[in-house]
């Protein structure tokens, strides 16, 4: 239980925004349009800090993208991979 609590504390307090501008490799950020855990606005904020990032918002999907919209996620990854 201590490990779980430590993980949850890290998830809620860790802030990586300061290093995002240093990541200059092509990066794909995928988010569900209806994601309540990490909303599209959060994903956009990440993309705005990264010089070479692309945002794809999956319509109608929530937080579990790979389960809710696997084809859309796979297509986004494939398009990104083929363009880099």
Automatic annotation (TrEMBL):
InterPro entries: AB_hydrolase_1 (IPR000073), AB_hydrolase_fold (IPR029058), Carboxylesterase_BioH (IPR050228). Pfam families: Abhydrolase_6. This is Unannotated protein. SUPFAM superfamilies: alpha/beta-Hydrolases. Residues 17-76 form the AB hydrolase-1 domain.
